[in-house]
Design a protein that fits this description.
By secondary structure, this protein is α/β, with parallel strands linked by helices. It has 17 helices and 16 strands. Helix 1 packs antiparallel against helix 11, helix 2 runs parallel beside helix 3 and helix 7 packs across helix 8. The structure holds 3-methyl-2-oxobutanoic acid (KIV) and zinc ion. 3-methyl-2-oxobutanoic acid binds next to strand 5.
C-alpha cells in the first residue's frame, strides 16, 4: 500500500507522449527510453497501448520483459480484446498494471462511442472485472472527466472501484480545467469514490491546452491526489501533457507547500529530457523550466554578479540536483580513446561495446572539424549512436552543386548491395536535392512529414541536431543525426529514417 504522504509518479512519455504529432519511436528506441525512465526511478511506466498496433504490442512486451524497477503499465479500452492484449504484452513484467479507460462525457459518448450512459457504465465495470482476472493492480480512467456530468462520472468510478480498480485517474483530457474547478471536482471524487479505502488512490492526468497542466496537477495534491501522470518534456497529444520534470522539481523545491515525498532520482532529469528530445525529435525550448538550457543561465550583469557572490540570489534549485551542471568537460581533436572514455565516465554515461565504438568514431570525425567539443556535444554524439539501425544503404559521401541562379544537384555516394554507387537528384534547394538523391538510392517515394534543425551549441562551428520524420505507405519513421554541416546532417538523418523502414 502507498503511504499517504507519498506521491506516485506515473510516466506516460511512451504512450500519451508518443501520440504527439510527428513522433514515431521504434520499439528499440522505446526500450532505450524505458531504461532511462527506470534510472530516473519513476514509479509507474506506461509503456504503450498494446492493442493499438503491432509496434506498440512489441514495445510493451519488450519493456515488460527487459526493464526492471517501475511497475509497467499498458493502456486498454474497456473492451475484452484490448484487456487480453494488454495482459499478453505485460505478463513478463515483475509488476504490471492494466490501465482501463472509457469516456464519460456526453460529447464523447454520443459522437465518438455512440453508446448510452448505461452502456458506458456496464462496459466500464466489465472492463475492470476482466482486467481483475489478470491482476489486482488496475487503474480506471473516465476519459474527458472534466467535461462529464460529475454525478455520472463519479458513479462510474465508484462502480469501477467495486469491480476491483485500485487507482482512479481523473483525466482533464482536453485541458479544460482551471486549478480551482479541478480541485472542487477532485474533492468530490476523493470523498465519494476513494472515501476511507486506503487501498484506493486518486490520480490526475492533465493536458496542456490552456497551459495549465502542471498547475492543475500540482493543485490536485491539496485535494488528496497521490498519483500524477505526465510525460518528460511535457510531450503528448496536441499541446501535450503535464511535464514530469516540472512537477517533480516543484514538489521537491516547495516541500513546504506540498508536503509529499517522491521516489524519483532528480539528478537523472536532464539526461532523460535530452534522450527523449533526441529520440522524438522534439526540441526542448531554451527557457523551459528545469531542463531548458537557460534554466540555470544568468545573462544580466546584475544577476551574474549576484550569483557569483551567492547562487541563491537568483537560483531556487541547484543545477546539479537536476543533472544540469555547467559544462566543464572539453575534448578536442587530440583527445584519444582515454580522454573520451574519461569524459563519458564523468558524465555518468555507460555504453555497450558496439555503441562505444560507433560513438568514438563519430567523435573523431567531428573533432577533426571542430576545435572544441563540450559536454552537450559529447552527449549529442553518444545519443545519436544509441539504438543504431542496421543499414540497408550506407551513406558514404555527398556533394551538392549549385548557386543562387542554378538548380541545385545533389550526388550521394552510398554502399548498396555490397557495392559503392552514385545517385543524383535535383531540388528547389540543397536539402531538397539531397533528399531527392537519397529517395533514388533507397528506391522509395518516402514523403517528408517533418524536418527540424536545432543547434546543439552556438558559434560559427556549432554542431546541429537534425531530425526528420518520413512516411512510407501508412507508416512513419523518424531519423536523426548530429553534424557540423547541416546538409550532411540532413542527409544522414534522412538516410537513418529510410534505413528504419528496412
Ligand atoms: O487524456 C486522456 O484522457 C488519456 C486517458 C486515456 C487517460 O490519455
Ligand atoms: Zn491523455
Amino acid at each position: 500500500m502507498i503511504p499517504s504522504d507519498r506521491l506516485v509518479i506515473f510516466d506516460t512519455t511512451l504512450r500519451d507522449g508518443e501520440q504527439a504529432p510527428g513522433i514515431a519511436l521504434t520499439p528499440d528506441e522505446k526500450v532505450t527510453i524505458a531504461h532511462q525512465l527506470a534510472k530516473l526511478r519513476v514509479d509507474i511506466l506506461e509503456a504503450g497501448f498494446a492493442a493499438s498496433s503491432p509496434g506498440d504490442f512489441e514495445a510493451v512486451t519488450r519493456i515488460a520483459n527487459e526493464v526492471r524497477g517501475p511497475v509497467i503499465a499498458s493502456l486498454a479500452r474497456a473492451h475484452p480484446d484490448d484487456i487480453d492484449k494488454a495482459y499478453e504484452a505485460l505478463k513478463g513484467a515483475n509488476n504490471f498494471r492494466i490501465h482501463v479507460f472509457m469516456s464519460t462525457s456526453p460529447i464523447h459518448m454520443e459522437k465518438m462511442l455512440r453508446m448510452t450512459p448505461d452502456e458506458v457504465f456496464r462496459a466500464s465495470v466489465e472492463g475492470v472485472r476482466r482486467a481483475r482476472q489478470y491482476t489486482d493492480d488496475i487503474e480506471f480512467s473516465p476519459q474527458d472527466a472534466t467535461r462529464s456530468d460529475p454525478d455520472f462520472m463519479i458513479s462510474v468510478c465508484r462502480a469501477a472501484v467495486e469491480a476491483g480498480a485500485t487507482t482512479i485517474n481523473i483525466p482533464d483530457t482536453v485541458g479544460f480545467a482551471t486549478p480551482a474547478d479541478f480541485v472542487e471536482l477532485l474533492q468530490r471524487v476523493f470523498k465519494e469514490v476513494k472515501g476511507d479505502r486506503d487501498d484506493v488512490i486518486m490520480s490526475v492526468h492533465c493536458h496542456n491546452d490552456l497551459g495549465l497542466a502542471v498547475a492543475n496537477s500540482l493543485s490536485s495534491i491539496s485535494a488528496g491526489a497521490r498519483q500524477i501522470e505526465g510525460a518528460i518534456n511535457g510531450i503528448g497529444e496536441r499541446a501535450g501533457n503535464t511535464s514530469i520534470e516540472e512537477v517533480v522539481m516543484a514538489v521537491k523545491t516547495r516541500q513546504d507547500a506540498f508536503g509529499v515525498d517522491l521516489g524519483v532520482d532528480t539528478t537523472q532529469l536532464y539526461e532523460t529530457s535530452r534522450l527523449v528530445s533526441r529520440l522524438t525529435g522534439y526540441p526542448v525550448q531554451y527557457n523551459k523550466a528545469v531542463v531548458g538550457r537557460n534554466a540555470f543561465a544568468h545573462e544580466s550583469g546584475i544577476h551574474q554578479h549576484g550569483v557569483l557572490r551567492d547562487k541563491e540570489t537568483y537560483e531556487i534549485m541547484d543545477a546539479a540536483a537536476v543533472g544540469q551542471q555547467a559544462a566543464q568537460i572539453v575534448l578536442g581533436k587530440h583527445s584519444g580513446r582515454a580522454g573520451f572514455t574519461d569524459a563519458l565516465e564523468k558524465m555518468g554515461i555507460v555504453l555497450e561495446d558496439e555503441a562505444y565504438a560507433r560513438a568514438f568514431e563519430r567523435f573523431k570525425q567531428l573533432a577533426d572539424r571542430k576545435v572544441q567539443i563540450g559536454e552537450d556535444e559529447i552527449r549529442a554524439i553518444v545519443e545519436d549512436q544509441i539504438g543504431e539501425t542496421r543499414e540497408k544503404v550506407r551513406l558514404v559521401g555527398i556533394h551538392v552543386a549549385g548557386g543562387s541562379d542554378l538548380t541545385p544537384i545533389a550526388t550521394v555516394r552510398v554502399v548498396k548491395d555490397g557495392t559503392e554507387q552514385l545517385f543524383s537528384g535535383q531540388g528547389d534547394g540543397m536539402i531538397h536535392a539531397t533528399f531527392a538523391a537519397l529517395r533514388l538510392a533507397f528506391g522509395t517515394e518516402a514523403k517528408l512529414l517533418d524536418y527540424r534543425v536545432v543547434p546543439v551549441t552556438s558559434g560559427a562551428d556549432a554542431m546541429a541536431e537534425v531530425n526528420v520524420v518520413v512516411q512510407i505507405d501508412d507508416r512513419t519513421y523518424a531519423g536523426h543525426s548530429v553534424n557540423t554541416d547541416v546538409v550532411e546532417g540532413s542527409a544522414e538523418a534522412f538516410a537513418n529514417a529510410l534505413n528504419k523502414a528496412g
